Amino acid sequence: MTMSATPPPEIIAQTENTMVLSMGPQHPSTHGVLQIVLEIDSENVVKADPEIGYLHTGIEKSAEGLFWTQAQTVIERMDYLAPSSNALCYALAVEKLLGITDGIPERAQTIRVLIGELTRIASHCVWLGTHGIDLGAISIFFYCFDLRENILDLQEAVGGARMHPNYVRVGGLNGDLPEGYLARLDALIEKIPGRMRELRGLLQANPIFQDRTIDIGMLTPEEALQWSVTGPSLRASGVAYDVRKAFPYCGYQTYDFEIPTRPEGDAYARFLVRLDEMDQSIRLIEQARRRLDKPGPVMIDDPKVALPPKETIALSMEALIHHFKLISEGFRVPPGDVYQSVESPRGELGYYVVSNGENKPYRIRTRPPSMYNLQALKGIAPGNLIADLVVMIGSLDPVFGEVDR
Amino acid sequence: MPSTQVPPIAGAAIDPPSLRPPIDDAAIERVAPSELRARLEALKAGGYAMLLDLGAVDYLGRAPRFDVVYHLLALAAKVATVAEIATPARVRILCGVDEGQSLPTVSDVWKSADWAEREVYDLFGIPFDGHPDLRRIQMPHDWAGHPLRKDYPMRGPALERAPRPAFANKTNVVAGSPPSGRTLEALQEQVKRVREGRP
Fold first, then answer.
1. What are phi and psi for residue A390, nearest 5 degrees?
2. Same-domain status, B92 and B189
3. Averaged over A111-115, what is the pLDDT?
4. Eight-class DSSP state of A204
5. ipTM
6. What are the domain boundaries of chain A?
7. B51 and B86 co-located in one domain
8. Are both B130 and B187 inside the same structural domain?
9. How many domains does chain B have?
10. Which residues of A touch B82 (CB under 8 A)?
11. Is the Cβ–Cβ distance between A36 and A403 less than 8 Å?
């Protein structure tokens, strides 16, 4: 701790022909608190340097001071548009360290897929709505948020909270689906295809939208890999890398779905890939829904990690002891390290988890897809207009809770 | 019935990766700092085109103290279908580095290492030689200390509050008479008069 106070660094120096402009961190189209220091020649961007860290909350540090189960609550706050993806990835990583991956009940796996895909649609709804607003298409925002609202209602039904349900737990799920959930899900499945047609109808063939996005923010496959871009942004450059297919988890290999790709690599291709991805998510949700008619356990039958059923606590001394131990000191995880990734709505979300055998994580390193995707802005922004920068940020879909953690 | 809790293992914090149960998530290699760059360049030439992630872990009390962890993914830089990609290989490179030591940068091999190395520098204090722009990234530029080190307090240092900026000092409270002429003393006098029933 010997850093002395230093003056603010000169990020970009201006030259004779260019000037320096700071965009953000309080700019409506930066989707959060992002500052971009721009060197501009009239309206053309010569160099763009995104400055992040305005939302740094030390989540990785906080998690080191919490029990394995408690850490999940702060981890869910990273990507606040897709909290269940974070929780799922973390739970899968800890389950691998515990060696209980094979013991997760099938129904829990199916519900995890269902929740993950619902989250994907909800997250893409926010992206599409705000991306539209950035370009002046206001009405699509309301259609998107209406659909997201329905999904958040379902999220509230399972976890009690709209934004951060904390439903996926190490060993399974917090509880079974509540009564009436499947009926509401069926109603939503009925509604989504029509709503998707409306969303496409509002923007896909819109000439203004096409003018603003086609050939903007070109990303070749080589560049995308250089910048470690993953998710829809990578697939819009033609590389069909999807963690759900490459490293299946939760039984994704047993579902019938496709990975939409586009070869163009521009902002419009990223828009189309995300819309196609929402259609595939609906397919996955329908398949998962059909498997949910059969009841079954949703938590692993292992008193070491799962809380005993409440009704057994008054009857069995072992159950009481396990309950007390799990609540007061949590469970211990065997020492080791593991890298686990899932396909979050933004790309490959990974956790590198290190345990030293204690009841708290030793280190949780996140692979934040948003951060790597956003970094590519340095490569694709130069040579474009400032107005197109807004399109590029929107098409990369960063979430700053995750970029800054 | 015996307790189902796993007992803590003494000294496990020294090197958890060596104690790990067999998990099939990636091939693991440990590389010395002097060979790091050559090894990473060779891996990249051998098809590991994507640097998935670059992070660090602080094993306080061990020598070397830190592990810098590189996750690589073997993905070809060309348009490819799901079937062509199948299950790409992943490799994890662990590189031990002690306090005060630095590592060579790989930001010229993979552009994405730029921010990742800045983050490791910011939160762990491990410098990277040859990095073009090694500044803090998450913490403020004049922050002291590296928060993700294990000897850094969980709730941060107890910092002195910064003095109020001059413009925030209200002149009518600090000194002199305000434009209205009602100083603090005059106000107190007025309150006293009212309480005592004087006119």
1. -60, -40
2. no
3. 93
4. T
5. 0.85
6. 60-376
7. yes
8. no
9. 2
10. 240, 242, 245, 258-259
11. no
B141 and B181 in a common domain: no
Please state, in angstroms and rounded to a whole number, the distance separating the CA atoms of residues B72 and B39. 12
Task: Give the pTM.
Answer: 0.85
A333: tokens are: 């995880």
B13 touching A, CB under 8 A? yes
Distance, CA of B107 to CA of B119 (rounded, Å): 13
Does the beta carbon of B174 lie under 8 angstroms from any beta carbon of chain A?
no
Domain of B135, CATH number, reads 3.30.460.80
For A52, residues 6+ apart whose C-beta sits below 8 A from its C-beta are A34, A35, A371, A374, A400, A403, A404, B115, B137, B138
d(CA B103, CA B126): 8
Residue A219 in tokens: 């990303």
Give the CATH class of A60-376: mainly alpha
Residue B142: both structure tokens together? 């004049």
Q: CA-CA distance, A248 to A121, in Å (whole number)?
A: 19
Print the domain residue range for B180: 170-199
- Counting every residue written for chain B, the total comes to 199
Q: What is residue A2's three-state secondary structure?
A: coil
How is residue B52 written in tokens? 């998935």
Q: Are B31 and B129 in the same domain?
A: yes
CB of A403 within 8 A of CB of A30? no
C-alpha angle B82-B84-B90 in degrees, rounded to nearest 5: 85
pLDDT values of chain B reduced to their tens digit, one per residue, 199 residues:
333 444 444 454 566 666 666 777 788 888 888 999 999 999 999 888 899 999 999 888 787 888 899 999 988 877 778 778 888 888 989 888 988 889 999 989 999 999 999 999 999 999 999 988 888 888 888 888 888 888 887 776 665 556 666 666 555 455 555 555 566 777 778 778 888 887 7
Residue type, B108: D
Both tokens assigned to A117:
């895909």
Q: Answer whether residue B12 is part of any domain.
A: no
Report the pLDDT averaged over residues A179-190: 91
- Chain segment A187-215, per-residue pLDDT in tens: 999 999 998 998 888 888 888 888 888 88
CA-based nearest residue in chain A for residue B2: A318
B35, B112: one domain: yes
Cα–Cα distance list, B53 to A361, B24, B106, B172 (Å) = 19, 18, 12, 56
Strands B50-58 and B128-129 turn out to be unpaired
Cβ of residue B20 closer than 8 Å to a chain A Cβ: yes
Does B110 lie at the interface with A, CB-CB under 8 angstroms? yes
Sheet with A44-51: list strands edge to edge: A19-23, A35-41, A44-51
